[in-house]
């Protein structure tokens, strides 16, 4: 365990030392990051905070409903600038840590199976070059978050093709800006072939995007095409090598009630039908997913009211049958009492209807008192004192199975009940 934790800790130590060196040689170092952490208690069978997510749903509503400590520390630096040509080269990195909120020294804790409570990941490590004779285009290579699109209140990344790759972006083609990314995934198949060896499969991706297409005053269109090609080695006879394709159309309207409105339509097929960042090369080539995501964020100028609302419709149609439809409706309005003090009320409803099963439902609402640097929906850091109430049906309880860590389960904190309450405090920050 000590050796497993050494590399992340060494990286953090190096990160702490770098700004001193950067200042010494006159170069600037960018430090940014994200964190959330807190404490909570459930008002059921006792114990720590419970968090509620409907089985089969792609996300959960976040406020007062996050049971982990999660942090990202990012360091970036422009390492070269040519005064004659204007060329610039930049290096970016990002280290992430996630831990269940069990005790004060997470690195040494583990569950009964010996699994570590803390997890570390190198989320980004890439280089960008610009002003190199290709107009406004930027060239990059490495591992990165790639133009991610999400809904903040339920942390739903509906368009996220992040990971190792290379590409070129910001190419002006008249009607908009073109970007291309070559992505690569190496996937552990999870199957053992006739030679008794566990094989990995390579999945190559080609991501094409055309963004900034002006279609109406204040409105822009983004079009995306993602192609995936899977390949296995010749000795692997147990696994498939399924290709995939995805189409995306997204309209963003700025200046709506001081915020924006974003509508996305998506179609995914084959290996990419489950996830962009984690393609499944063992999927059936006829697996399909259809998705609509509508979100509105508002903060009228001078108003104490802000917030975000979302609607998601997603239909999965596996080739082998037993698909499902997920519907999610939610909103988080906020109100500022003063510059630093405010309140939020988040309400979320999720419904999953399996093709051959009963309809599952979960309603969750959270009331929170907020402390922020300024009034406004996006003001961070933010301290929260919250109370969360959730209610689910018996179909959701059955789908939760015998998982003691799932509060919807009959063996969870709330037993045979189909409702529960948690209280707690949390901090969230980005900088």
UniProtKB/TrEMBL annotation:
Keywords: Cell outer membrane, Ion transport, Membrane, Porin, Signal, Transmembrane, Transmembrane beta strand, Transport
Single annotated GO MF: carbohydrate transmembrane transporter activity
Pfam families: LamB
Chief location bin: membrane
UniProt key word Membrane: yes
Leader sequence residues: 1-24
Keyword Membrane applies: yes
Cellular-component GO terms for this entry: cell outer membrane; pore complex
Subcellular compartments: Cell outer membrane
GO BP: monoatomic ion transport; polysaccharide transport
Lineage top rank: taxon: Bacteria
InterPro entries, per the entry: G_neg_Bact_CarbUptk_Porin, Porin_LamB, Porin_LamB_sf
Topological relation to the membrane, as annotated: Multi-pass membrane protein
Family membership: Belongs to the porin LamB (TC 1.B.3) family.
PANTHER family assigned to the protein according to its UniProt record, in alphabetical order: CRYPTIC OUTER MEMBRANE PORIN BGLH-RELATED (PTHR38762)
Protein name: Carbohydrate porin
Organism of derivation: Chromobacterium paludis
């Amino acid at each position: 365990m000590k050796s497993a934790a050494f590399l992340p800790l060494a990286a953090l130590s190096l990160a702490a030392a770098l700004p001193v060196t950067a200042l010494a040689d006159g170069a600037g170092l960018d430090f940014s990051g994200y964190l959330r952490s807190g404490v909570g208690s459930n008002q059921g069978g006792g114990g720590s905070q419970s968090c509620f997510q409907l089985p089969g749903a792609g996300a959960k509503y976040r406020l007062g409903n996050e049971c982990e400590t999660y942090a990202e520390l990012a360091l970036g630096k422009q390492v070269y600038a040519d005064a004659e040509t204007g060329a610039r080269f930049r290096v970016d990195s990002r280290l992430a840590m996630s831990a269940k909120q069990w005790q004060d020294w997470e690195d040494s804790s583990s569950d009964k199976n010996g699994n570590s409570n803390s997890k570390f990941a190198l989320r980004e490590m890439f280089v960008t070059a610009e002003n190199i004779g290709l107009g406004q285009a930027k060239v990059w290579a490495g591992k990165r978050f790639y133009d991610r699109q999400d809904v903040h209140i339920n942390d739903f990344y509906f368009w996220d093709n992040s990971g190792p790759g290379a590409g070129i972006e910001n190419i002006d083609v008249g009607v908009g800006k073109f970007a291309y990314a070559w992505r690569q995934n190496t996937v552990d198949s999870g199957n053992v072939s006739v030679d008794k060896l566990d094989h990995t499969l390579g999945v190559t991706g080609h991501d094409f995007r055309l963004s900034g297409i002006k279609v109406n005053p204040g409105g822009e269109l983004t079009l995306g095409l993602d192609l995936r090609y899977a390949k296995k080695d010749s000795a692997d006879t147990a696994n498939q090598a399924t290709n995939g394709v995805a189409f995306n159309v997204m309209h963003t309207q700025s200046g709506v009630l001081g915020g924006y409105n974003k509508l996305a339509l998506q179609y995914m097929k084959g290996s990419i039908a489950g996830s962009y960042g984690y393609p499944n090369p063992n999927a059936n080539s006829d697996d399909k997913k259809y998705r609509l995501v509508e979100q509105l964020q508002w903060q009228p100028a001078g108003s104490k009211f802000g917030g975000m609302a979302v609607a998601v419709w997603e239909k999965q149609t596996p080739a082998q049958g037993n698909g499902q439809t997920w519907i999610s409706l939610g909103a988080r309005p906020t109100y500022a009492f003063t510059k630093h003090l405010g309140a939020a009320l988040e309400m979320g409803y999720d419904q999953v209807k399996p093709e051959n099963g009963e309809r599952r439902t979960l309603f969750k609402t959270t009331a929170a008192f907020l402390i922020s640097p300024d009034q406004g929906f996006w003001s961070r850091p933010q301290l929260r004192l919250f109370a969360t109430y959730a209610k689910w049906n018996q179909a959701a309880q059955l789908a939760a199975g015998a998982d003691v860590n799932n509060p919807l389960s009959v063996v969870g904190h709330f037993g045979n009940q189909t409702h529960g309450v948690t209280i707690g405090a949390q901090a969230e920050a980005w900088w």
